[in-house]
Amino acid sequence: MHYAIGDVHGSYDELMDLLNMIEKHDNDARFIFLGDFVDRGPDVWKVLEWIMNNISIDGKYQSVMGNHESLIIDWYKEWLYWWNRGGFDGEDLMPETHFDFTYWLDSMNCLSPEKIEPIISFFKSLPTRKEIIITTPSGRHIQYNIVHAWDAFDKNLSEDEIKNINLWKRNCYGNYENDIIIVHGHTPTISDMYKSTGFTRPGMIAYRHNSINIDGGCCFSDNYRQYPCFLCAICLETLEEFYNCDLDERMHKIKRSYESDEDIQLKINAYKKYFIENDDLFRNKLLKRLNIR
What we know:
Elements: E1 2-5, H1 12-25, E2 30-33, H2 44-54, E3 61-63, H3 67-84, H4 101-107, H5 113-125, E4 129-135, E5 141-147, H6 159-168, E6 181-184, H7 192-195, E7 206-208, E8 211-213, E9 232-235, E10 241-243, H8 247-253, H9 261-276, H10 281-289
Helix pairs in contact: 3-5, 8-9
């Protein structure tokens, strides 16, 4: 089976838990990540080491590029120019990344071209879209386009315009242009922008017309503790959902120091009432397309 995994953002422990869970469930599992491995999370360097050792173009672990990888590629051009002008011995301040990647490079003593260039080369090797046709258990053939942010089907667009859409565009309404199912992240399901456009389980996988958002906002759990903020994965053949742990465990794990177990249980019960127990019409339509329901 094929599994897509949402934005990791330095969440190494959650990533290992999720992979172990799926691989115990399916020995032949193949994975496609949505990019955004770096920035924001607590273990960016561990995630970076893992992906560079495991992800390849057509292997068991594959990935598309995220906008955060693209930002670092752009930063490196400016940084290398600074380095060649004298670097740390020059008068100009070192260019820093938009987020915390320069902090991680510095903490690992990797602020030199020979140590940064393998990372940049790896990021550049990632495509911005993967198209895959899967066969469901009932024999249906379904095309998925796996992208970080969104996809475009206008033949008049240039490659650069399509790449920009793949990396940056936020679409919270779904794909009404064709029957291709777009699997994406980039806009966490905890965001007000996304929640306002349809039924959403914040912090879990969400569905729109011919699209699936698997960015649960895992790295934002400190700021959105009312939601589980999972690292999410979905099986493309069955739409079975996988998370790094169950809901109760996650809510207890991210609770604030002043919250009691009773407080957390009330929060869990409320989440289940408003989000788990309600029917998701978009998901049901996709299940029907796959001849699963």
